Amino acid sequence: HAKHLGGNRICIYSSDLNDYAQDTIALETNLRLAIDRNELEVYYQPQVSLISSKVSGVEALVRWNHPHFGLTSPQVFIPLAEERGLIQAIGHFVLDSALQQLTLWDKDGMVIPKVAINVSALELKPGYVDAIQAALTKYQIRPSRLELEITESVLVSDGVETMQILEHLRGLGITIAVDDFGVGYSSLGQLRRLPIDALKVDKSFIDNIHNDAEDEAIVNAIVTMARALGLRTIAEGAETDQQLSSIEKLECDCVQGYVLGKPMSSTELSKWMNFNPVVN
Ligand code: C2E
Ligand code: MG
Ligand code: MG
Ligand code: MG
Q1: Who contacts 248 (Cβ-Cβ below 8 Å, separation ≥6)?
Q2: Which range is the signal sequence, renumbered to this chain (predicted)?
């Protein structure tokens, strides 16, 4: 690295790399404190059924609002949290917040059938089932109102232990959705054996679904296969009305994307539920 470039005292750091390292250290130190300092917040993005036009659920997406760094993307801090052993604490915070929020919406008479949370591979360890059960009991939420989103790579590469945990969770009535489906490497044969209930069709297939015959064909094939296997489909990341009509035409069960609603704070979601003509 820069240190070894010469014997003189002038270090020729790549400033970007240096910034990155500094930021990463600062971010990590701060992430450790973020939960206690109440800097994490859970946002919710509606998932809408194309059969009933009603909200079928919401996906919980964590946000980190740091007083100095501002709003940091989970795409940045979730990998860091995984690396530094902080993901379990964050996962627990999201689970607890989301289930509590569900009870609050219930009290307000809002119909949110289920909440989906993203689960990292590192969380799927012995003890996870107990933690989930404890949270469900704490808030008196039926297990069928909780969906866990797990990426394809986790399902394919992780061993017997992970499968047993997922099977145990499904046995309780919790549902499992494969996140970002289609960009991983699961074979069709594997898919049949996995303990899953739904496929979330990756946004990359949705982006050009309205004007690319091949993307349309892929989504069509996914939906057909899912139906044959008894799995629900959720199209991810729909931004335009054109994409939405293609998704409807191909008979995906549900859709989630900016065209219907961005991830929102719980308060914003309540307002969205009251004012959105699509879903009432
Ligand atoms: P994901 O689970 O695939 O979530 C979907 C991402 O797509 C979200 O990004 C969402 O805001 C974004 N999105 C939804 N609709 C649209 C759209 O129409 N257009 C565009 N451009 N984007 C859309 P977000 O919230 O930044 O989260 C990124 C990723 O971070 C998530 O991808 C998930 O993998 C991870 N993540 C978020 N929250 C958690 C969490 O609580 N735990 C774990 N383990 N991972 C999380
Ligand atoms: Mg997800
Ligand atoms: Mg996804
Ligand atoms: Mg993703």
Answers
A1: 50, 255
A2: none
Q: Per-residue pLDDT tens for 165-189?
A: 999 999 999 999 999 999 887 777 7
Q: How many whole angstroms separate alpha carbon 253 and alpha carbon 76?
A: 31
Q: Is 180 in the pocket of ligand 1 (CB under 6 A)?
A: yes
pLDDT tens-digit profile of 119-174? Answer: 999 999 989 999 999 999 999 999 999 999 999 888 877 688 899 999 999 999 99
Q: Is 62 in the pocket of ligand 1 (CB under 6 A)?
A: yes
> Which ligand places an atom closest to the C-alpha of 200?
3
For ligand 1, mutation pick of 43, 61, 183 (most atoms within 8 Å of CB): 61
Neighbouring-strand partners of residue 71: 65
Digit-coded pLDDT (tens) for 34-75 = 988 889 999 999 999 999 999 999 999 999 998 877 888 999
- Strand 70-72 and strand 55-66: the pairing is antiparallel
Residue 119 Cα to ligand 3 midpoint, Å, equals: 11
Ligand 1 mean position, distance from CA 179 (Å): 10
Ligand 4 midpoint to CA 13 (Å): 33
Contacts of 41 (CB under 8 A, 6+ apart): 62, 63, 64, 65, 265
